[in-house]
Design a protein that fits this description.
The chain has 408 residues and is α/β, with parallel strands linked by helices. It has 16 helices and 13 strands.
């Protein structure tokens, strides 16, 4: 069966993570994604290691784990867009593409004549998605934007980590580049919406996506907590701002997550904990009261939770359908029976590293399953094939471009 987007071709001129993440999702869904890279060095993340993939003999290859995490399913073409020949190749490719993804600084594509207005004249149906730190307008538009800085500026670090008055207190970034990943997801949604509109109108459009805007948007309930109350949310460690008890707890031999989501679950938990009277205490009888009396209740529960091991608590809580979970390291996540059942560890064959494992796309289609036919590409692996088959250049023309250092 073919992927849902088998009829689409994407020109991915982005690098690092946000744009490549969107391109990988589109590739998983069946789109042909052509990744444009700098000759010689390629996407910056090719050098973001270790770790690097190793071949069957255990030798390190130039393929970084970081690059491979966001570039599955793509074809790599190494083109120097600073040359007239390179620019002409990009313009010719645009004629054959439905979507262009880029994350150059504001004005960066215009410098090469590859801005939306110029390319729209070549291909009126082109959906052109620009991802930048701060968007195309505003006083910060020309600033570079990086995930870590955006997590700080966009408020995420102010609500992540332990409170200042506790051990280890202070702002923390999330353990993955959440602003970049979220921007990649929003970019994918926006591209698909623009393509639906193109099906009705025949016209493409320009998408202006900013990491800072995305970071604010994904603050979700925390942003609304501020807008409704006028009070800026604070760091609560692993506690939830609107639900109690909904946090991690130390046990006799480790830690677990306890996520009590309603009053009925809290009552069942109190029975398990051997203190049913807690559920009838006026201070804790509803979630509102539990949030308002968080400190008193949590001190009580901390003593109770230390009385049993993590394994004992998880077994008891799961029996009563009270949401809970172990706190797994990533190696244990891959060993989890549910993850194995869902096929989230994906095995592929890489041209340099041989057999590799990757993380599968989490979307499950009933009729158009994801396609995993192309591993993360070698730098320039498909340059000649694309020039020959898509742009119909002959071998003499390709050799001339190679001799002129336009392609690699």
């Amino acid at each position: 069966m073919n992927g849902a987007l088998k009829h689409l071709r994407v020109l991915d001129m982005s690098r690092i993570l946000a744009g490549p993440w969107a391109g990988q999702i589109l590739a998983d869904m069946g789109a042909e994604v052509i990744k444009v890279e700098r000759p010689g060095s390629g996407d910056d993340t090719r050098a973001w290691g270790p770790p690097y993939a190793r071949d069957a003999q255990g030798r390190e290859t130039p393929e970084s784990a970081y690059f491979m995490s966001a570039n599955r399913g793509k074809k790599s073409i190494a083109v120097d867009i600073a040359t007239p020949g390179g620019l002409e190749i990009i313009r010719q490719l645009v004629r054959h593409c439905d979507v262009l993804l880029e994350n150059f600084k504001v004005g960066g594509m215009s410098k090469y004549g590859l801005d939306y207005e110029s390319l729209q004249r070549i291909n009126p149906g082109l959906v052109y998605c620009s991802i930048t730190g701060f968007g195309q307008t505003g006083p910060y538009a020309h600033r570079p934007g990086y995930d870590f800085a955006i997590q700080g500026m966009g408020g995420l670090m102010s609500i992540t980590g332990q409170p200042d008055d506790q051990p280890g207190g202070g702002p923390q970034k999330v353990g993955v580049a959440l602003a970049d990943i979220s921007a990649g997801l929003y970019a994918t949604i926006a591209i698909l919406a623009a393509l639906v509109n193109r099906n009705e109108t025949g016209a493409g459009q320009y998408i202006d996506l900013a990491l800072l805007d995305v970071q604010l948007a994904v603050l979700a309930n925390q942003a609304m907590n501020y807008l409704v109350s006028g009070e800026a949310p604070q760091r609560l460690g692993n506690s939830h701002p609107n639900i109690v008890p909904y946090q991690s707890f130390a046990t006799a031999n480790g830690h677990i997550v306890l996520a009590v989501g309603n009053d009925a679950q809290f009552r069942r938990y109190c029975l398990l904990a051997g203190d049913p009277g807690l559920a009838d205490d006026p201070r804790f009888i509803s979630n509102r009261q539990r949030v308002e009396n968080r400190g008193v209740l949590i001190r009580k529960l901390e003593k109770i939770m230390r009385e049993k091991t993590s394994e004992e608590w998880l077994q008891l809580l799961e029996t009563e359908n009270i949401p809970c979970a172990p706190i797994n390291s990533i190696d244990k996540v891959f060993g989890n029976e549910q993850i194995r059942h869902r096929g989230m560890r994906l095995d592929m064959k890489h041209p340099a590293a041989g057999p590799i494992s990757m993380v599968a796309n989490p979307i499950r289609f009933s009729a158009t399953p994801n396609r995993y036919e192309q591993p993360p590409p070698l730098l320039g692996e498909h340059t000649r094939t694309i020039l020959r088959e898509l742009l119909e250049l002959d071998e003499n023309e390709i050799e001339a471009l190679t001799h002129a250092a336009v392609i690699r």
